[in-house]
Amino acid sequence: MRLKSIYILFFILSCGFTQAQVTFVAKVSKSTLGINERLRVDFEMNQDGDNFVPPTFKGFKVVGGPNQAISNSWINGKRSYSKTYSYFLTPKAKGTFIIKQAVIEIKGKNYKTNPVKIVVTTAVKIPKDENNADYIASENVHLVAEISNSNPYLNEAITVVYKLYVSNNVSITRSWREIDSPKYADFWSQNIDDKGKSQIYEGTYQGKLYRYVILRRTVLYPQKTGKLEIEPLTLDVPIDVQGNRRDVFGRRRMTRVNKTISAGGRTIDVKPLPLQGRPDNFTGAVGDFQFNIFTNKTSLDANESLELKTKITGTGNLKLFDLPSLNLPSSLEVYEPVRDNQVKTNSKGMNGSVSESYIIIPQYKGVYPIRPIAFSYFDLKTEAYKTISSDEIIINVENGPVPNQVPSDNQNTSDNKDIVLTNNQFKYIKLEAALAPVNQPSFFKSELFWWLSGAPFLLIPLFIIAGNTRRKRLSDVEGKRLRKATKLAKKYLSEAKKNLGKQEAFYEALERALHNYLRAKLDIVTSEFSKEKTATLLSQSNVDEEVVSEFISLLKSCEFARYTPTSNVAIQQDYKKAVSVISSIDKQFTS
Predict the structure, then answer these.
(1) What dihedral angle (degrees, nearest 10) is formed by the CA atoms of 234, 238, 241, 243?
(2) Which residue of 31, 248, 422, 481 is 20 to 30 Å from 76, comparing CA positions?
(3) Domain contains 206
(4) How do beta strands 116-121 and 32-34 pair?
(5) Which of 270, 300, 328 finishes a domain?
(6) How many CB atoms lie within 10 A of CB 73?
(7) Same domain for 70 and 157?
(8) Is 207 exposed, middle or buried (0-12, 13-18, 19+ CB in 10 A)?
(9) What distance in Å separates the CA atoms of residue 316 and residue 256, rounded to the nearest whole number?
(10) Which residues 6+ apart lie within 8 Å of 265 measured at CB?
(11) Residue 168's domain spans which residues?
(12) Of 397, 427, 446, which residue sits at a domain end?
């Protein structure tokens, strides 16, 4: 009787142990598949777990998942539980691959699946099964890349439009996911914002009626010649397909299928621009353009500024070429140009204008012609080069200093008068010789000899003192910075210092020095100077308000001095004040 009880107890414990045993396995839909097929991988466990870690799926691309499914049921008083993580994969290449172990944590312990070997073969023929949801989805949804011109010239605009065609037999009720984005390595590219991106259009694909949406429009400008590749756009699209089963109301149930759809790679054959007829000043402009040059004034005084602008308008690769440069007389001071792009990009390419603005300051009185400037571009309509020349502009500087003029060799100063000889006409000839005796005293042991011999011993202490002084100056960082700032201030104010006795010339030079200093420190052009903007920029650069106020007062003094007389003492004070203010700004300025 005892033996029978022991057997029964052992049987019950064995059953409980069997029911409590944890299983965690990997299952695949097929172990051999074609490169054009998909693989489903399920990781299934019989108890709930946490911290699931999938394998890397080397050699495959994940196009779906992870999808989680849980089954929990009671049959005849027995609980049945399962939890599954599902992935959908597509192979990247042919060969033999290993799906490595997945890991899950169940009741504080880690469990691993066994590795699974998968063989990927060449593409297989997929049977046309009208009842197969995958086949129906692949036949009714298409992704297409439409190219406006597959054989453009270098720097000619082309447009790529990506369209997703969907037939009336299927529907897409959830958003798709982008797997691979196209790359344009050898193109200048810009995506166009499409306000009607979610709009549905009616059209035809391969002679059949379809609905379609425009996913993306991209404008490309090829930067190399020859055959250039555009990588494909690839999407993971959830497609709802009608199944054969019906619900209680007689309606067909929908089956959702995740399909990987690609637009396919495209090849663009880019033609080089012709060499025949290419102008020497051609800088790569391709399109249809107009070229103009104009100034805001043509009459002014010396040391006043004018703005000269070169402007190109039209349609083409506006952002991808250089504007013609100016060739001006050396007596006109010219600052670096500021480029302004007013360009919009639509499905036909770039259109608008690009311009460069120059600030020019004449130094002397006179008439300065700005010769015509030529701009060349390649016209796509005529497939030939065109050159546009600007009109000549005359700059008239009415008031200001006159440059030094050398008398012409053709000038005749004699006016046919008789030459009168004077007693001084031979004064450059020396009539008396300065002779010295031949017997000079010996240099050795002379007074000069002893001075030269002892001079190094006398100079050594001086060198030591000078070296110590120099080291102290170098270690004095604050003093070094002050001396550097003062030197910079005197450099800018050197011209003003030369005119300390002339009120008008001094204040003109002082104002120009202050403007040049601002232009160097704040990186602004002369036409943008204003007291308010100057005060704001200096304050933003951590300059004290008191120093900023003194700088602004100096600018005001320069303006008032043009109309009111002032004394030499006030001029000296303004010069010293300018040196001090520029030194203070340079010490405190932080960019």
Answers:
(1) 130
(2) 248
(3) yes
(4) parallel
(5) 270
(6) 9
(7) no
(8) exposed
(9) 46
(10) 229, 230, 231, 232
(11) 133-270
(12) 397
CB 102 within 8 A of CB 112: yes
> What is the total count of domains within the chain?
4
Same domain, 257 and 307: no
Question: What CATH number is attached to the domain comprising 484?
Answer: 1.20.120
Q: Distance (Å, rounded) from C-alpha 150 to C-alpha 229?
A: 11
- Check pLDDT > 70 for residue 339: yes
First to last CA, the chain: 99
The 10s digit of each residue's pLDDT in 24-57 is 899 998 889 887 788 889 999 888 888 889 998 8
Burial class (CB in 10 A: 0-12, 13-18, 19+), 319: middle
Mean predicted confidence (pLDDT) in 576-582: 81
Give CA separation, 45 vs 50, 88, 117, 177, 195, in Å.
11, 18, 20, 29, 48
Length of the chain: 591
pLDDT in tens, 376-416: 999 999 999 999 999 889 999 988 888 765 444 444 444 44
C-alpha 327/C-alpha 373 separation (Å) is 9
As given in the structure block, the two tokens for residue 113 are: 């699946």
